[in-house]
Amino acid sequence: MKSTGWKFQGNQGVFSLNMPEHNSYLYFPLVNEAGMMSAITPNLHGEITSSHNTFLMSPVSVEDLHNSKSARNFWVYIDGYGAWSATGNSARQNANRFMQQEEESELEAGFLWHKLKRINRETGLQAEVTSFVPVTDDKIELMKVKLTNTSDQPLKLTPTAAIPLYGRSADDLRDHRHVTSLLHRIFVHRKGIEVQPVLSFDERGHRINQVCYSVLGAEADGAEPAGYDPVLEEFIGEGGALDWPEAVVANKKAGAAAGDTLEGYEAIGALRFHELQLLPGQSRAYVIAMVISEDRIESGRLDETYLSEKSFDDLLKQNENYWNDKLATVSFHTGDQQQDMWMKWVTLQPILRRLYGNSFLPYHDYGRGGRGWRDLWQDCLALMIMEPSEVRYLLLNNYAGVRMDGSNATIIGTKPGEFIADRNNIPRVWMDHGAWPLMTTLLYINQSGDLDFLKQPQTYFRDVFVKRCQEKDSHWLPENGNKLLTVNGRVYEGTILEHILLQNLVPFFNVGEHNNIKLEGADWNDGLDLAPGRGESVAFTAFYASNLMQLADVLLAWQENHGVEFIEIAEEMAVLLDSLTTPASYEDVKGKLELLDRYYESVKVSVTGNKLKLSLADVVQDLKLKAEWIIQHLRRNEWITNEEGYAWFNGYYNNDGERVEGDFPHGVRITLTGQVFAVMGGIADDDQVSRITKAVDRYLKDPNIGYRLNSNFGEIQQNLGRAFGFAFGHKENGAMFSHMSVMYANALYKRGFVQEGYEVLQSIYDLSNDFDRSRMYPGIPEYINEKGRGMYPYLTGSASWLLLTMLTEVFGVKGNLGHLRLEPKLRSSQFGADGNAVVDTRFADQQLQIVYSNPSGLDYGSYGIQSITLNGEKVQLRSITRGAAEVDRYTLSALSMNESHIILVELA
């Protein structure tokens, strides 16, 4: 059956979808800051967890969403009809669906709640099931089931809530699944069922367990259930199943009572409610709570707080207000309201990534919690816009993960600044990791003007691995801690600037035989992981070049604005600023590697703790010298033109030392990544950018899935990476990978190629918004596969980049050393019928509404800034040109707090 797709309702991002069960792989996130993380499908499959080791429901992958029978369920035994599932999870309903005898259903969802409405046509019984995770300090998911008799006859009903209680680590799903059930201790309460395994068996060892998993329930007025079925095998019965359980189908009397304790069985939170007669037009509601607690539950407190219809409704309203207020921080109003609402869901995604990390949703079944190094910095891009108050603290703590050899920790703890030695002592270095911290820090400095952040002290990460994980330090012991020490045994601290210099200078010397930076374990594309010996990433060599140039520029601004003349760095680092000591030949690969090895040896065990005082102007000169050398090297050696006359930058060398891109027997090979950073960082001149866009359109643009990550290489590349083992058009091998596509658009906007950048962004939206192809809820996916399906929704760094691109490039609202710069690059179609394009955002601790007025409907390139007013009054500008203007930070800081201020920008 062809879907009609979801539709937005109103202007708060709420959407609805008829017959949602007609679509596979759909799921929706429910989460809170306390650590409850849930996924819920249109028929209430999914999972509930607070960590890798504490799953209330069984952990699931996407295939489990339709293969498994384990789900949140609410059964109703209807006299004269039999068993019926309010969530659609019964063998009878599944069979009816494929015999064209299905019932009506509708999904409705908003920030962050999920409602399923279903009606049994034969009896007229309607069920409305609402689910959310409240914004409280408890790890709890709530579900309200409202039953309504829409027929003209009374209905005699017996309701039963049934939520399977897995209650242990994801590692136990296959490893000792039965044995770990023997650890279960099941307690029956007046309001529900609680499971507390006595031990946990997982990679941490056999430990005493305190965590409890509970299913509690009550009628709308708080009345307790009539009975309980806590043992799974007894609930389903011999030969039964979760989608046709004997306890419900036979309408058996519940087998347990409050006060019972059972041991050693798989558990289920099956709560039997009182039999009732529902008259025509009458409704009855039930509230179910699924709880993960650090110890035995406080049943009285939980009853009072959650288990009534009034409490549920109040908490649901609080939840809606919380998320709507958070997302109102940034919102866009253009000529396309549908796209504006879609962007609200994109705005949510960076927050979801902070809360879930890269795990705990069905497609993200590979994670064990937390985020990677790259994620820390890219997610902060959006947090600076969405949740700016803690960004400085987060950035400062993140730098504690840098090693003195320029690499960094790769296992990130759950708390800011918590870094862990690599799991199972298997080290890996991604060569791009050193590039991202500066980009994020520069955004922070430009937004805040806080240049003195560069002189903040921070520690360094230390573990057994040295020389960028090429060697182990046999003398290092775990009890030494994870901080770098001086020769005197003191914890060493360097400035944030010192950390930044390290992560960008070390790669400059860490080159392969073609004098580009070594690929090592991989770069941004984790799938390029089979070229650690001779592989090189030309793409990220370009990124590091732009970093060196931008760092030089910000240091000059620090000197001009704050009078900083000198900086201090660890004395061992002097060799990396070679032009200040003994100049190296940058053409000499062997010499660069020897210099780098001397540095590695000097910091292998510890550092002296002595500081070297350097002229800031000399450091700037060294950085610019290195940047210019890379730029000229790439333009001279990596710019390729193929037989068809198209030209672009080569992005990689493989483990045989061979250039990856160009004309090959199987066809043209080109990567999008190889173009993005050359464009974004200014390595490509304007003519080269123009030629790159033509090559990308020729070889990577596909009307069915958008801009591919790479062309079809035609062979498994065992000398480059596992990505090429994936089928072409999937994931890192030729899919539309949103992250790189958005960065490509960002790069084009930065360089003034607005039409081309607009087309890239519009293609991502059009593909994601086309539900009949993408089969996903509103938002941007990690990638779009060969069939056009949106894959890995919600948890993707592309959301941060899209939000950043829309705000700072499309709407042109950005910082310049703390001052507000307005430089719109809006197309004529992005203005509303009233000629306005509006963005709400925070800047200088003020909530601003920035209105671009374009009454003549001019396109980008035809309009310029004519005037700017603030709250109706002309404002003194720091500067103004036809294309951009700046408002002084102090003008904004002087405004009254706790209200929105309007900046009107007249375009003509």
UniProtKB/TrEMBL annotation:
It holds the Pfam family Glyco_hydro_94. GO terms for molecular function: carbohydrate binding; glycosyltransferase activity. CDD domains: GH94N_LBP_like. Keywords: Glycosyltransferase, Transferase. One of its GO terms (biological process) is carbohydrate metabolic process. Coiled coil: none annotated. Residues 626-812 form the Glycosyl hydrolase 94 catalytic domain. Residues 84-301 form the Glycosyl hydrolase 94 supersandwich domain. PANTHER family: CELLOBIONIC ACID PHOSPHORYLASE, CELLOBIONIC ACID PHOSPHORYLASE-RELATED. This is Cellobiose phosphorylase.
